[in-house]
Design brief:
It is a single chain. By secondary structure, the chain is α/β, with parallel strands linked by helices. It folds into 2 domains: 3-21 and 236-430, Enolpyruvate transferase domain (UDP-n-acetylglucosamine1-carboxyvinyl-transferase, Chain), CATH 3.65.10.10; 23-213, Enolpyruvate transferase domain (UDP-n-acetylglucosamine1-carboxyvinyl-transferase, Chain, Alpha-beta prism). Helix content is 31%, strand content 25%. It contains 14 helices and 23 strands. A 4-stranded mixed β-sheet has the order 2-15-17-16. A 4-stranded mixed β-sheet has the order 4-5-3-14, covered by helices on one side. The protein has a 4-stranded mixed β-sheet with strand order 6-7-9-8. Helix 11 links the parallel strand 18 (309-310) and strand 19 (335-338). The two termini are 27 Å apart.
């Protein structure tokens, strides 16, 4: 089993970090460009396993995907109705975004497509997308009563019909799949969520000339005739990747880090709200718009943190950041109580279980697992230990930061960071 040793930081973390491209936006930039009929140059693309799965799938569906460098590519599609039947099975790898969004697009196509993915993706629930798409008239079949991979999308018997869907979960992937199917449907399609989830799909559809109507927690789309592709998309840095450095800079004494080009879409900035509530010293600089999305540079400095309580309402805005927030909570004074986070049990792994089990190896007894959240006792006495990543990139990176502020850590299966942040360990070395 592959392992990596992370040592305790000898001094404060210092330096400038250019944050790699946003994963969610990188996926959508390739997917939507492949539905246009003019070349789109995509800059600051995240060259990581998940996004490369999307690029490979769009190529298999007939789009031209040409890499100029690791982070720059040109995608040319054959128009909104120009996708071709893939000659082979589409492999989504570890990427739930690739699979769920493409199910929405392919539900309306006149050809058959079959998906597979890695062992982790085979365990993740797809019924939450297949059920509403089936209600629109899609013909989608999967294992375990149409809930799990492998999944086959058969041409619908007739044109999909729009609908009003009250989603039981605030999920950008569920919302996006239904809206993308709605583009090809008859009549309007509305998705209403319990809370507003991240809106990268809506932002990018607008950049491709698609009109959407938002009211409260609901979004409505009309049938779309044509995509008007922009000539260029510049992907801002991923706030989920910046989160590790925001926390590291806040908890390692003497630290001062400047994070360049971070996306600050309001549906993603829950991490900033929670860290500021904890007493973190984070300053936004050079605020601007990049690829139709708000972006800024972030200066973070060490500060004394205190425990906080937060729940379901903010969860869609920071669901991916819970593992690294748990690291901040271990270094804060007082308890942090997290509720409404049951969605973490169906991510790349059961993240609530993984956080409790692995973090307690470094901070014995400090993390209590609850059914839909965690209670974290701050001021933990951190010790060196060997911990397992569960092949989950966010668990691995969070463990590394915890080892940096504590007494070090040995991480088993550390290479899973390639899913979203291949340069992570190298960057951690450079700022010490």
């Amino acid at each position: 089993m592959e392992k990596i040793q992370i040592e305790k930081a000898r001094q404060g973390l210092q330096g400038e970090i250019v944050i790699p491209g946003d994963k969610s936006i990188s996926h959508r930039s390739v997917m939507f460009s492949a539905l246009g009929d003019t070349p789109v140059r995509i800059k600051n693309f995240l060259h990581a396993q998940d996004c490369m799965s999307t690029a490979a799938c769009m190529e298999a569906l007939g789009a031209k995907v040409e890499f100029i460098s690791d982070t720059e590519l040109i995608v040319t599609g054959n128009g909104l109705h120009g996708l071709k039947e893939p000659a082979t099975i589409l492999d989504a790898g570890n990427s739930g975004t690739t699979l769920r969004l493409l199910m929405g697009i392919l539900a309306a196509q006149p050809f058959l497509s079959t998906f597979t993915g890695d062992a982790s993706l085979h365990k993740r629930p797809m019924g939450r997308v297949i059920k509403p798409l089936s209600q629109m008239g899609a013909q989608i079949y999967g294992r375990e009563n149409n809930a799990k991979l492998p999944i086959t999308v058969v041409p619908a018997k007739e044109k999909l019909h729009g609908m009003h869907y009250d989603s039981p979960v605030a999920s950008a992937q569920v919302k996006s799949a239904i809206l993308l199917a709605g583009m090809f449907a008859e009549g309007e399609t509305t998705v209403n969520e319990p809370f507003v989830s991240r809106d990268h799909t809506e932002q990018m559809l607008a950049a491709f000339g698609v009109q959407l109507k938002r009211e409260g927690t609901a979004v409505t789309i009309q049938p779309v005739e044509k995509f008007i592709a922009p000539q260029e998309i510049e992907v801002p840095g991923d706030i989920s990747s910046a989160a590790y450095w925001l926390v590291a800079g806040s908890i390692v004494p003497g630290s001062k880090l400047l994070l360049k080009n971070v996306g600050i879409n309001p549906t993603r900035t829950g991490i900033l709200d929670v860290l500021k509530d904890m007493g973190a010293k984070i300053t936004l600089q050079n605020e601007r718009t990049s690829g139709g999305e708000a972006a800024a540079d972030m200066l973070v400095e060490y500060s004394d943190l205190k425990g906080v309580t937060f729940g379901a309402e903010i969860m869609p805005r920071l669901i991916d950041e819970i593992p690294i927030i748990a690291v901040a909570a271990l270094c804060a004074q007082g308890d942090t109580v997290i509720t409404g986070a049951g969605e973490l049990r169906v991510k790349e792994t059961d993240r609530l279980m993984a956080i409790a089990k692995e973090f307690n190896k470094l901070a014995p007894g400090a993390v209590e697992e609850r059914e839909d959240g965690l209670v974290i006792h701050g001021g933990a006495n951190l010790q060196k230990a060997t911990a397992f990543s569960y092949d989950d990139h966010r668990i691995a990176m969070s463990l590394a930061i915890l080892g940096t502020v504590g007494a070090g850590v040995e991480i088993e299966n550390p290479q899973c960071v390639n899913i979203s942040y291949p340069e992570f360990y190298q960057t951690l070395e450079e700022i010490q």
